[in-house]
Design goal:
- The structure holds 3 protein chains of 3 kinds.
- Chain A is mainly alpha-helical.
- Chain A has 20 helices and 2 strands.
- Chain A has helices at 10-32, 36-44, 49-78, 88-122, 131-150, 178-206, 219-250, 264-297, 305-319, 334-362, 371-394, 396-402, 406-436, 442-468, 485-515, 554-560, 564-568, 586-602, 606-625, 635-644; strands spanning 578-581, 630-633.
- A two-stranded antiparallel ribbon of chain A has the order 1-2.
- The longest helix of chain A has 35 residues, at 88-122.
- By secondary structure, chain B is an all-alpha fold.
- Chain B is 79% helix and 0% strand.
- Chain B has helices spanning 2-11, 28-55, 65-68, 71-96, 100-130, 139-172, 176-208.
- Chain B starts with a helix and ends with a helix.
- Chain C has a 6-stranded mixed sheet with strand order 8-5-1-2-3-11. Chain C has a 5-stranded mixed sheet with strand order 4-10-9-6-7.
- Chain C folds into 2 domains: 29-70 and 92-117, no CATH class; 127-296, Immunoglobulin-like (Sandwich), CATH 2.60.40.
- Chain C is elongated, with a radius of gyration of 26 Å.
- In chain C, α2 packs antiparallel against α3 (88-115).
- Chain C is of the alpha+beta class.
- The chains are: A mainly alpha, B mainly alpha, C alpha+beta.
- Chains A and C meet through α4, α10, α11, α12 and α14 of A and α1, α2, α3, β7 and β9 of C.
């Protein structure tokens, strides 16, 4: 118990104070404005995909902030040689939490925010296939992320890197609770991710509007389908790997230890069987967003739709067969290395095709440079370079030199920021009016874009060269005589510019909440797909009447035919009662139970762990025994809603 | 009877075309979802199998597969589980005939066989542990107990699930939702049976050779 | 207009900056190697850079051109074809270009991957150094003379060096960028890495895989000497340095950061025992490496 709270570091004391103040502030505000009931009814128990999207988005932005602060601290530490602003121990924790948060608690939720925001609306559905499971997924993510984040002040953060390789992560070398936090938090949110994968795959396969054949589906939905297929086959490997490492640490087994016949290599294989496809899990939907944005803001059909679909699927499949390229340098032998080198390069082929097709979509279009398009255009050169350096890394003998150097660091940041974060921001700006009913301010957004984009190049281009100069990743400081100082200093300046860009995004959101232009038409971008035929934000049931789809860009077709106004009008006499899922508090309680159980295991408190997991079981049982989980919205209520939306 | 017809239609995906867009409860979408879940669960078992195969010779001078596997024990477990899969199928069959009593009887028998299986497995584990073959002893034993134990935990969860369903059906009889639940739990049970066949072959039979 | 100019400016300055950086401060040791292994890797790197530029440059140029030409502004006379979305010929070209590039690079990669598993020179007798990464230091053992060094390694020039790598701690990676690419040191495994130095010099080496708190201190020097200087050094260590005892070895395995050290002898078979204790006996690859070491280096 002595080491329960992390002590002795002024930065952590400051955070303690901040956390307490924020909590008090939230509790006070909710009580003062009598909002507790509202919070419970409208948010904590909701199963509405649009609200779940909003919750994912808020959490993702908060996590982007946390991971970003970690990044700024690291860059500050590395700005000058022989720096002791952070100790080695502290730096190790920070790069571990930075990586874990950015991949698992920032990229994944912002991805799921996009899934939830757009997929049901694009395919003309009233919700996802399993709305209750969708809420379960969210709360598992939420409490997993919470568990991970409290490690900072309670017990100490994990410090063995986001890849968490044993034997470094075995008790012998890493006895504290930090690593347990990593294992359990990632495991809990991982269950949620698997459930989301199942959910959206079933949604896309089974819930499409009549007439919307697979080949008439918007490309974003195709990309989500591809991503979900990868989730289904990749995430269980992570579940397995984390389970076995947890057993090693909690029960004392010998899967990956150096003793008693354990084999650490097996963890690394399992980890990357998930870890590499994970890159495609997050980047494929970003590709989908780019396709939607490029087409919309060029006012033109997407070029080479079939090629786009085929390349999405090809990346999903081939991407599953490339994991060994993360450890070419672990002695797998020339046969294995040559195979995986070439399979990795092959991913570049469909990716290259996609880039060309985006360019040709803009070609002979009419390009509008609104924020979603700006981020998309920022993405293209970024991803061309990330793809290029990716192909360079895939050449195994080259990788012997790049592996674990700053060249690699620069490459995957260019792929994940330039590819995924740009895409998710494009998606956020694109669908924001649909979710919230107002457009984000363009002027502040442009400031954000330019600070972030320029900052990105200033930050990461020098890192490629640092790699060539022999600098390895995860060094908390470096000597002055290596000639690395100037480039590191420049890189830090870039990181600060990116930080300023992020602050502009924050300012933009706050400003737009009060002053943002309201979206009264439901179609602020002159969109092409079904979600833009609905009011912003759409009613709980999305579609008062079921659309019958004829073409790929259905809403565009309707507008071109001059039928938009007629299409927006609902015939009040033809309405039927609408079948919807009921809200439920069980997903939230299940998340709490997982949190309690996970927390118990982190500290090896068996009783607490048993209470938590018994809670999980009770939640499952309670749901199984529930009789009425759905209801019908009466016609009169639908009529009223549609009239108030001006659609009657 | 109309309810049952609708259920059967839903199970075969026919009900879906009636109201394609409604947020819908029963029917093929749930079954599809469960198949997808089984695919992920199969992947979890695949990782455990792969780990077991890699570590099975890593005995660290401790007990070996041939040394601890008890042939009559695991053969009996296999027969019991295969039989339970058959009785579980009969429970689903009775549900299709809307024969509540028969369905409940077969369900009870399935649960009893499941309990017998888990009990035998637990006693086998207990005996091995008493002989010093604990899961902390070597990488081989860690992998063995984890693979077989994960299957056992799945079976135990299946029994609890069936018990919950048993009382629901006993109290309220069949409707579309409960019929679907019984169908789904049956899928789960057959899936565990198939996984066991792999364990029987890869772990036990190849282990004692 | 404004945005477009700024965008072009950013790209240009980015390219310029990276050019400047490639030639500026510090030394790009990966692309200026001091041995045949690093050189052949650098050649592959150059080839890959040229091949990827064939795609990257046109993409960026094309993008800037298209964005400038097809902006949605009044009076833009460029063609606007909102329904134009298929062109079989263009798509075939898009698919063909990357396939050809990947084909060329893939073939070169496979060839190089195989050749790196062999010594860079076939006619010279190789020299063997056994490397063990520990928390947080490097132990080098020279089975020819039964001497050992810590945190520095001396090798003869002009001769292929067979580094045999293992770890008696969390896995690290043995990297001497100026001589060539890295290979992991892993508990229970004994892996080979061939390197060779052209001329005498001191080459920077560092662990490349994170191993905990002292990781940033895992630097070592590889000092290449001419054959005669090298032999003189061997003899000097043999005669003047203290022996590495069992206790001394045990102390080295404790987590700590230490400075350079030399030893005139080390406990017999300590390398092989370390590999075996950490699980080497279960790995067929390790067993065969150890077997061949026993034959080549006259162990046992």
């Amino acid at each position: 118990m002595k080491n329960f709270f992390v002590t002795g570091d002024p930065m952590i004391y400051a955070s303690d104070v901040l956390i307490v103040l924020v909590l008090v502030g939230i509790i006070f505000t909710l009580t003062y404005f009598k909002k507790w009931g509202w919070l419970w009814r409208e948010w904590l128990t909701t199963v509405d995909h649009k609200k779940i999207a909003i919750m994912y988005l808020i959490c993702a932005i908060l996590m982007l902030f946390r991971g970003g602060v970690d990044a700024e601290l690291m860059r500050t530490q590395l700005a000058v040689p022989n720096n002791h602003l952070l100790s080695a121990e502290h730096y190790d924790q920070i790069f571990t939490t930075h990586g874990t948060i950015m991949i698992l608690f920032m990229a994944m939720p912002i991805l799921f925010a996009m899934f939830n925001a757009a997929v049901p609306l694009q395919i003309g559905a009233r919700d996802v296939a399993f709305p209750y499971l969708n809420a379960v997924s969210f709360w598992l993510f939420f409490f997993g992320a919470l568990l991970f984040n409290i490690s900072f002040v309670i017990g100490g953060s994990p410090d063995a890197g986001w890849t968490s390789y044993p034997p470094l992560t075995e008790l012998q070398f890493d006895p504290g609770p930090g690593e347990n936090y990593y294992l359990l938090a990632v495991q809990i949110s991982g269950f949620g991710s698997i459930a989301t994968g199942i959910n959206f795959m079933a949604t896309i396969l089974k819930m499409r509007a009549p007439g919307m054949t697979l080949m008439k589906m918007p490309l974003f939905c195709w990309s989500v389908l591809a991503s979900c297929i990868v989730i289904l086959f990749a995430f269980p490997a992570l579940t397995g790997a984390l389970l076995l490492l947890t057993l090693d640490r909690v029960v004392g087994t010998h899967f990956f230890t150096m003793l008693a016949g354990g084999n650490p290599m097996q963890f690394i294989n399992l980890f990357w069987i998930w870890g590499h496809p994970e890159v495609y899990i997050v980047v494929l939907p970003a590709f989908g967003i780019y396709s939607e944005v490029v087409s919309t803001f060029s006012s033109k059909r997407v070029f080479g739709y079939k090629s786009m679909v085929f390349s999405l699927m090809a990346i999903a499949v081939v991407g599953y067969l490339t994991w060994v390229h993360h450890f070419f340098t672990m002695g797998a032998g020339a046969d294995v290395n040559a195979f995986f080198a070439i399979s990795t390069m092959c991913v570049g082929i469909p990716t290259g095709v996609k880039v060309f097709n985006w360019l040709l979509t803009m070609f002979r279009g009419r390009i509008r440079l609104n924020l979603p398009m700006l981020w998309t255009l920022g993405f293209i050169p970024n991803f061309a370079l990330a793809g290029a350096t990716g192909v360079m890394l895939a050449a195994a003998p080259g990788d012997y030199q790049y592996h674990n150097s700053y060249f690699l660091v620069a490459h995957f940041h260019q792929a994940l920021i330039g590819g995924v974060v740009y895409g998710m921001l494009a998606g956020m700006y694109y669908w924001w009016p649909k979710l919230f009913g107002f457009v984000l301010d363009e002027r502040l957004g442009k400031w954000a874009f330019w600070f972030f984009n320029i900052g990105f190049y200033v930050c990461f281009m020098p890192q490629y060269e640092l790699g060539f100069m022999g600098m390895t990743r995860r060094m908390y400081t470096y000597p002055a005589n290596m000639g690395w100082t100037t480039l590191n200093f420049i890189s830090t300046i870039g990181a600060y510019l990116m930080g300023i860009g992020f602050l502009f995004i924050g300012a933009q959101i706050v400003y737009s909440i009060f002053r943002g232009q309201r979206d009264l038409t439901g179609d602020p971008w002159n969109g092409r797909t079904l979600e833009w035929s609905l009011p912003s934000p759409p009613p709980a049931y999305n579609f008062a009447q079921i659309p019958h789809v004829q073409e790929r860009d259905e809403w565009w077709r309707i507008k071109q035919a001059g039928l938009a106004d007629a299409y927006r009008k609902v015939n009040l006499n033809e309405l039927e009662p609408i079948h919807m899922p009921k809200n439920s508090g069980i997903p939230f309680l299940m998340g709490v139970s997982f949190f309690v159980g996970g927390f118990g295991l982190v500290f090896g408190w068996t009783v607490v762990a048993i209470i938590g997991f018994a809670g999980v079981f009770l939640c499952l049982l309670a749901r199984s025994l529930q009789e009425k989980t759905d209801y019908h919205i009466p016609v009169s209520e639908v009529q009223q809603t549609e009239i108030s939306l001006g659609r009657a | 009877m109309a309810v049952m017809e609708q259920t059967l239609k839903d199970l075969h995906g026919a009900g879906e075309h009636r109201k394609p867009l409604e947020y819908t409860h029963g029917g093929s979408v749930n079954i599809l979802g469960f198949w997808l879940f089984l695919a992920t669960d199969l992947m979890v078992f695949a990782t455990l199998f792969a780990t077991y195969l890699i570590l099975k010779t890593h005995t660290d001078g401790g007990p070996t597969a041939a040394g601890i596997f008890d042939i009559p024990g695991y053969v009996a477990e296999t027969f019991i589980l295969l039989t339970s899969s058959f009785t579980c199928g009969l429970a689903t069959y009775s549900m299709r005939k809307n024969a509540k009593a028969a369905a409940l009887t077969w369900l009870a028998i399935t649960m009893a066989l499941g309990l017998a299986f888990v009990g035998l497995e637990a006693s086998e584990f207990a005996k091995d542990v008493a002989d010093g073959a604990t899961m902390q002893r070597s990488a081989f034993l860690s992998a063995f107990y984890t693979l077989v134990g994960t299957h056992g935990a799945h079976v135990s969860l299946g029994i609890l699930w069936m018990a919950s369903l048993f009382f629901q059906i006993a109290r309220r009889g069949f409707d579309a939702v409960r019929a679907r639940k019984l169908f789904v739990v049956g899928l789960y049970w057959h899936f565990l049976d198939i996984v066991w066949v792999f364990i029987f072959t890869v772990v036990y039979t190849m282990g004692v050779r | 207009m404004n945005v477009r100019v700024r965008r072009a400016g950013v790209l240009l300055s980015g390219l310029l900056a990276s050019l400047l950086l490639a030639t500026g401060c510090g030394r790009n040791i990966v692309l200026h190697p001091a041995g045949p292994v690093g050189r052949s890797e650098a050649h592959l790197i150059y080839l890959s850079i040229i091949l990827v530029l064939i795609v990257v440059v046109p993409v960026i140029v094309l993008m800037m051109f298209i964005v400038m030409r097809y902006r949605d502004k009044p009076g833009n006379k460029a063609a606007y074809k909102p329904e134009w979305s298929e062109n079989r010929a263009l798509e075939v070209i898009w698919w063909a270009i990357p396939i050809v590039i990947i084909g060329i690079l893939g073939a070169a990669t496979a060839k190089e991957t195989y050749s790196l598993t062999k010594p860079p020179e076939q006619n010279t007798t190789p020299y063997t150094v056994e490397v063990t990464s520990l928390n947080w230091k490097w132990l080098f053992q020279y089975p020819d003379k039964n001497i050992a060094t810590v945190n520095y390694c001396v090798i003869p020039t002009g001769r292929p060096i067979q580094f045999v790598l293992t770890a008696n701690a969390p896995m690290n990676s043995f990297w001497v960028p100026e001589l060539g690419g890295q290979e992991y040191t892993m508990p229970g495994m004994a892996m080979r890495l061939w390197l060779q130095a052209d001329k005498p010099g001191t080459y920077y080496g560092h662990g490349a895989n994170f191993t905990g708190e002292g990781f940033a201190n895992m630097q070592f020097d590889v000092i290449a000497k001419s054959q005669s200087d090298f032999e003189a050094w061997e003899n000097q260590v043999k005669q003047t340095a203290p022996p590495l005892t069992e206790t001394g070895y045990k102390n080295l395995t404790n987590p700590s950061v230490v400075s350079k050290a030399s030893y005139s002898s080390y406990p017999a078979n300590s390398f092989m025992d370390t590999v075996m204790e950490n699980g080497g006996k279960y790995m067929s690859q390790t067993m065969s490496t150890m077997q061949s070491l026993g034959d080549d280096a006259g162990m046992k």
